[in-house]
Automatic annotation (TrEMBL):
Annotated source species: Paenibacillus whitsoniae
Keyword hit for Coiled coil: yes
Protein name: Peptidase M23
Record-linked Gene3D superfamilies: 6.10.250.3150, Glucose Permease (Domain IIA)
Residues of the M23ase beta-sheet core domain: 296-392
Keywords from the UniProt entry: Coiled coil, Signal
Signal peptide: 1-27
Amino acid sequence: MKKKLIPAALSLGIAMAVTVPPAASYAASATEKIDQQLNQLKKQKAEMQQKQNDAQNQITKVQNEKEQTTKDMNELLVQVNEASKKLTQLNEQIDQVSDELEKNAKELDDAEARVESRDAMLKSRVRLLYTNGFVSYMDVLLSATSFSDFLNRVEALKSIVSQDKEILESNKKDKETVAQKKAETEEQLVKVQGLYADAETLREDLKAKEKAKEVKIASLSKQEKTLESISEESDQQITALAKKEAQLQEQKRQAMNTKSPFTYAGGKLGYPLSVQAPITSDFIFRINPVTGKPENHKGIDLGAPKGTPILAAENGSVIYASWMNGYGNCVIVDHGGGLWTLYGHIMNDGIYVKVGDVVKRGQKIAGVGSTGQATGNHLHFEVRKNEVPVDPKPYLR
């Protein structure tokens, strides 16, 4: 009897071992398919993250080059201004030298007039001497009426000869002095004009370099804009993938008949910092303090020291934990019910969770920093309802 029972028991055991309830088989198949989709999503996210990182690295490189080019251009502007000042000074010198040259020309004209007058006087005497010769001088002396008259006439003749000599010397001196002064002034004018030409050439060269820098900055700005568009597009795609991942995780839980560890059903959220902090920028339309561009500020900024613990505002699942354009290091938590919270500008090495982690309300998930587009240490906190940013303040009051 026992021998018959053993084969029967074995047959029943084998049948029970190979027979799987249809529901369990379906669940295993569904979760396997979801896992495949999740793995594919992770690959896509990794590729998009790499694309975004590459774009961000290029943006940083372009911004650094743009900053250096702007610095170089500012230095060129200083040099252009200095060259312009030098040109103004040289212009004043040219005016002064030109006035001096004009004055010298007048003095030369006056000197030439004096020389011409003296020459006329000398020529008149030469003609007289040529006409009368030495006899005229002898006649003057011999026609003296007395010895004293003779001496007076000798002195008079000596005076005339001396005067003629002085005239010749004055002529020579006048001509030499004025000619020398004129030559010096002309030389000075040529020198100043040369300096002016050099300064003008330098200024034009500097202005050409300045223009080249402006063109380069415009080109870099265009590159930066293109790269920011790529990075922003990557952000959107990564966020979409994160949303899809969260949906798949929920489908997986349902397929496994596992209750979700979190479901936001309304009510106030927990404060996202370990300490109370002032709102340094509200949920408003504003000018971005970094880019200078108008924008809708999608959350609130809470000013706090670097490293201040950032806390999960509610139970949820981490769907993003990496760099995001503008936000810097960033964490996004899905709380279920279409509610997400975002934590931006986290310090480097300050993300303490990873994608897929389930976090509890008040759990430390990161540290305050100033990465991305930030002018100082603070937490950028967003609340998104069905992916649309809404004012976080009503959720915190």
